[in-house]
Design goal:
Layout lengths: L5 E3 L2 E3 L6 E5 L7 H14 L3 E5 L3 H13 L4 E4 L4 H9 L4 E4 L1 H4 L2 H14 L3 E6 L5 H7 L4 H16 L6 E6 L3 H11 L8 E2 L7 H17 L5 E2 L8 H13 L8 E4 L10 H12 L8 E5 L5 H4 L5 E5 L3 E6 L2 E7 L3 H15 L3
Parallel strand pairs: 3-4, 3-10, 4-5, 5-6, 6-7, 7-8, 9-10, 11-12, 12-13
Antiparallel strand pairs: 1-2, 13-14, 14-15
Helix pairs in contact: 1-2, 2-3, 3-5, 6-7, 7-8, 8-9, 9-10
């Protein structure tokens, strides 16, 4: 699917450009210090675009100060009050997210569009299973994939009829199969870039499973220009998951990939604890484009780690450090993490980082 190109700050989506990762802050936007701190943490994790809720005029005005402190495009999430959308754009938002259906009258929507035209800012038309118009629900009887698509296209048409085409569409549902079908339908009916996600997907485990299945199937078909993995909790986890989904699909290079064995009765070291520590350690090396293996025993470990750039392979109260399939160190269990860190530092230095 080829979509039109949309510029968001200094980033672009659509037109075959790489799929970008988004997240949303869960701080109070009015609390500039906390919001900026969270965005910077998300930037370090690999977030490409960040969205903030704008429920008050104070939040809209705070965007100006937030924008000065961050390095990625800022999207303002607006509901109900058209004046907040206008204020957000006037205070530096790179894009706004609205549902035209809950903004109010045509005059209010036109006032928002006029300001968007002035600054040439993209508008994301956001529709989800909880925000369908009464007439659409009445037509279909319940939330369906067809209903989501019709609502989104109707709302986009309201804006395009005002001669503004700088748009992005999102159609999200918490029902994975319904969401997949909706994206397959809309991809045949518009060239507007799509922001893809499974809404209200849940906690870390359930949210990751639902998002991986849904986003995986949608993206594999060439549908989707930017994604958000919606999880209940720290939004940094959303970025980690999104990166892994894109990397698994071959849609993004770079970043550290970790592979580890599931453990069995042959494991003689605390592999689960070691894997958790390695994962934490690797957060400081995300700029490296490498695969790191964490294996539990010497039976299959060295062979399974051969495909990795670096590997840790457990033995009896000890282990091996493996580099490009070659054993380079044998260390006590307590020194394995430091041994891996030394090799990571060497790789980092070799790449001039």
């Amino acid at each position: 699917m080829t979509t039109r190109v949309v510029k968001i700050g200094d980033r672009v989506i659509g037109g075959g450009n790489p799929v970008l990762i988004q997240s949303m802050t869960n701080t109070k936007t009015e609390d500039v210090k906390s919001t900026v701190a969270q965005i910077k943490e998300l930037e370090r994790a690999g977030c490409d675009i960040i969205r903030c809720a704008v429920p008050t005029m104070k939040a809209a005005i705070a965007l100006k100060e937030i924008k000065r402190e961050i390095n990625i495009p800022l999207v303002a999430d607006i509901h109900f009050d058209y004046r907040l959308a206008i204020a957000a754009m006037e205070n530096g938002a790179d894009k706004i997210r609205i549902n035209p259906g809950n903004i109010g009258s045509t005059e209010k929507l036109k006032a928002v569009i006029d300001v968007a035209k002035k600054y040439n800012l993209p508008i994301r038309v956001g529709v989800n299973s909880g925000s369908l118009e009464k007439e659409v629900l009445l037509k279909y009887g319940t939330v369906t994939s067809e209903a989501l698509v019709e609502s989104a296209l109707n709302n986009a048409k309201l804006i395009e009829d005002m001669d503004y085409h700088n748009l992005v569409i999102s159609i999200k549902s918490s029902n994975v199969m319904e969401c997949i079908k909706a994206h397959e339908l809309i991809a045949t009916r518009t060239d507007i870039p799509l922001h893809v996600g499974i809404t209200e997907s849940g906690s870390l485990i359930s949210g990751n499973i639902k998002s991986s299945v849904g986003l995986g199937i949608i993206l594999y078909q060439g549908i989707g220009d930017t994604i958000r993995v919606s999880l209940t909790g720290n939004p940094v986890e959303e970025i980690k998951s999104a990166r892994m989904i894109l990397k698994a699909l071959g849609l993004r290079n770079g970043g550290v990939e970790i592979v580890s064995c599931p453990t069995c009765g042959r494991t003689d070291i605390d592999l689960i604890g070691l894997e958790e520590k390695v994962n934490k350690l690797l957060e400081d090396y995300m700029e490296l484009d490498i695969k790191v293996a964490v294996m539990g025993c010497v039976v299959n470990g060295p062979g399974e780690a051969r495909e990795a750039d670096l590997g840790v392979c457990g033995g009896k109260n000890s282990g091996l450090i493996i580099k490009k399939g070659e054993i380079i160190k044998r260390l006590p269990e307590s020194e394995l993490l430091n041994g891996l860190k030394e090799e990571l530092d060497i790789l980092k230095a070799e790449k001039g980082m």
